[in-house]
């Protein structure tokens, strides 16, 4: 099935630093989504990307849909303590008709911020 | 607008039992997808329902099944529970199928003893 390689697996940073994470795939995706999950909760949608090359911001967050349609990155500027959590990329593949066409998720990036 | 709600939030079952989880999508959303989240496998797609019909299914055994009602609410059933079924089960809703962004509920934490 589809696989997404998300890196880094974890990040330990100082408050105020910028953060960058990315996802790559061997397959083409139609849509890229970035989610944040906190303990005991479901993932919360941060940014949705629908077109190759698209660059979208949501406050201090910026994400881009790679031109090849096989990658995406998420940047967080000037990190603050409430940014702590697990960030997931997710991709929706081109419809294959094979049946298993739900979102494919990366393994997540654990963001830990030291004050 | 209320978000996606899932009930119950926590469940403890024993091997061999069956369990039913419930999901109420955001008002107006017609597509409901279910995902299993475990530390080892991460988030994995189970199935998607739209207009009361299963439209997509992930690579899970037939013990996992679901249904959707006319008001778009969905239930997921797992029969003959195994220890490995312990996971956070997440429901996500979207306006229509596949091409729309999905919004997740808080999940149901299932523990199988």
Shape estimate of chain A:
globular
Sheet bearing the most strands of chain B, described?
7 strands, mixed
Largest sheet of chain A: 6 strands, mixed
Give the DSSP E fraction of chain B (strand runs of 2 or more residues): over 45%
SSE run of chain B? EEEEEEEEEEE
Strand content of chain A: over 45%
Q: How many β-strand runs of chain B?
A: 11
Give the overall pLDDT of chain B as a whole number: 93
Q: State the share of residues found in helices of chain B, binned by percent.
A: under 10%
Q: Tell me the radius of gyration of chain B.
A: 13 Å
Instruction: Report the uncertain regions of chain A.
Output: none
* SSE succession of chain A: EEEEEEEEEEE
Mean pLDDT of chain A: 90
Tell me the distance between the termini of chain B: 37 Å
Largest interface: A-B, 26 and 27 residues
Radius of gyration of chain A: 14 Å
Helix coverage percent of chain A:
under 10%
Number of helices of chain B: 0
The counted number of beta strands of chain A is 11
Structure keywords:
heterodimer; A: 115 residues; six-stranded mixed sheet; five-stranded antiparallel sheet; 11 strands; B: 113 residues; mainly beta; seven-stranded mixed sheet; four-stranded antiparallel sheet
Can you describe this structure?
Chain A is mainly beta. Chain A has no helices and eleven strands. In chain A, strands 2, 4, 5, 9, 10 and 11 form a six-stranded mixed sheet that branches. Chain B is mainly beta and 113 residues long. Chain B is globular and about 35 Å long. The model of chain B has no long low-confidence stretch (mean pLDDT 93). Classes of the chains: A mainly beta (115), B mainly beta (113). The interface between A and B is medium-sized, with 26 and 27 residues.
């Amino acid at each position: 099935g589809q696989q997404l390689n998300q890196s880094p697996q974890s990040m330990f940073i100082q408050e105020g630093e910028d953060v960058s994470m990315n996802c790559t795939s061997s397959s083409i995706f139609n849509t890229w989504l970035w989610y944040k999950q906190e303990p005991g909760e479901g993932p919360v949608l941060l940014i949705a990307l629908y077109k190759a090359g698209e660059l979208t911001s949501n406050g201090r967050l910026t994400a881009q849909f790679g031109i090849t349609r096989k990658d995406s990155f998420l940047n967080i500027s000037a990190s603050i303590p409430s940014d702590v959590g697990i960030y997931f990329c997710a991709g929706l593949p081109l419809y294959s008709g094979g049946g298993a066409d739900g979102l494919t998720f990366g393994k997540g990036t654990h963001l830990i911020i030291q004050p | 607008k209320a978000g996606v709600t899932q009930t119950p939030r926590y469940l403890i079952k024993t091997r061999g039992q069956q369990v039913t989880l419930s999901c109420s999508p955001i008002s107006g959303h017609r597509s409901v997808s279910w995902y299993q989240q475990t530390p080892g496998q991460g988030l994995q797609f189970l199935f998607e329902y739209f207009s009361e019909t299963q439209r997509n299914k992930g690579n899970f055994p037939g013990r996992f099944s679901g249904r959707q009602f006319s008001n778009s609410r969905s239930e997921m059933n797992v029969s003959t529970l195994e220890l490995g079924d312990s996971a956070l089960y997440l429901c996500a809703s979207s306006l229509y199928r596949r091409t729309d962004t999905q919004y997740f509920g808080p999940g149901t934490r299932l523990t199988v003893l």
